[in-house]
C-alpha cells in the first residue's frame, strides 16, 4: 500500500534550521524558528517553571492515568486567567490538549462533527492553520488582509472578505501577537469584528498562543474577551508553550463558550470522545507545572515577572529594529506597529536568499523574522545587511 503514497516536501523552516546549524560563519543570525531567545540566544527554562518542576518531582505520588480531559486543576486555573469574567462560568467548558496545536485540531474535529464546512482565515496566517483544518474536514478560505509595506491590518478588507461567508461558517482569529505578521486589530477593531461575526451567525475560533508577549498579560486577552462576550458560541485554543516556555512539553487547552450549561455538557462530551480517539489523554508534565504555578501566589508572581521581562525584551528589540527607518523600499519604522515575536518584512524570496548567502542571516522564505533571534549587535548587522542589499540592487 505504501507505493500509493507520494513523497511530501520537507518543512522549509526545518531546512533553514539545518542550514543555520551547518553554517560556520561566527556572525550568523537565526531569525527562523519561533521560540523566545534571551540576549545570548538561549531559550532557557523559566525559573518559576524549574521551581514547579522541582516541587512536582518531590511531591507527585502517582503517575496513574487521569482522563481525556487531562489535569482539571490546570484547566480551571487557566480558564480564570484567560476568559476572566468575560463569560459566565456556566457557559465555559474546557479540557487540556497537547499544545495549542492539539487544541486547534480538536476544535477542527468538533466543528466538522457539528457540520461547519468552512473556516475563514486572514492571510497570511500560521503555516499550520490551513492544513490542520483541511485535514480535519473543514475547508480553509483565505482572506488577504495585511499590507507588508505599511505593516497594517486591513480591517475593511477582512470584513468584506467575511461577507462571502455562509451563516454557520467559522472564522479564525489570532488572539494577540499575530503569527507571522505581528499586527493585531486595535480595541475598536475587535469590537467591530465581534459584532460582524455575531450578526452573521459565524463561529469564532480564537487562537491565543502568545498571551503576555504583546502589550501585557490582560491586555493581550482583551480582544479574545471582546469576542467571547459578544457571541453565543465560540472556541478558544490556548497554548502555554510560549508564555511558560514549555514548547516540547506540549501544553495547551481548548475552551468552548456555549449558550448555556446544558449545551456545554453536550459539547464537552463530544470533546472528550474526540480527544479519546486522538491521543486518549494529553501528556501531563507541562500542565502539572502550569497548575502548580497558577495555584501558588508566589510562583505566579515570579512567572509573571519573568514573562514581563521577556515581553519587554521583545518590545525593545522591535523598537531598535524600527529605528533603522527607511532602507530602500523597506520602511523598518512600520515594524513598530507590531507586537510579539514576529514581523514579516516585504522581502522577495531572492532577497531572503541573498541575505542568507551573503550575510548569514536566516529567516523564513516569506520574510518572516523572529524578533527574539536578535540582540542589539545583530540588529546593527541586520540594518547594514539591508543597506548592502539595496546598494547591490538585489530585488
Ligand atoms: N497557534 C499559533 C499562531 C502558533 O504560532 C503556534 C506555535 N507556533 C501554535 C498555535 C501552536 O502552539 P503549540 O506549540 O502549543 O502547539
Automatic annotation (TrEMBL):
This protein's record includes keyword Transferase: yes
GO molecular function, one term: pyridoxal phosphate binding
Assembly with partners or alone: Homodimer.
Alphabetically ordered keywords of this record: Aminotransferase, Pyridoxal phosphate, Transferase
A cellular component annotation (GO) from this entry: cytosol
The Aminotransferase class I/classII large domain, residue ranges: 27-384
Domain of life: Bacteria
Required cofactor names: pyridoxal 5'-phosphate
SUPFAM superfamilies: PLP-dependent transferases (SSF53383)
InterPro entries (alphabetical): Aminotransferase_I/II_large, Asp_trans, PyrdxlP-dep_Trfase, PyrdxlP-dep_Trfase_major, PyrdxlP-dep_Trfase_small
Protein name, entry field: Aspartate/tyrosine/aromatic aminotransferase
KW Protease (keyword) present: no
GO BP term, example: L-phenylalanine biosynthetic process from chorismate via phenylpyruvate
Family that this chain belongs to: Belongs to the class-I pyridoxal-phosphate-dependent aminotransferase family.
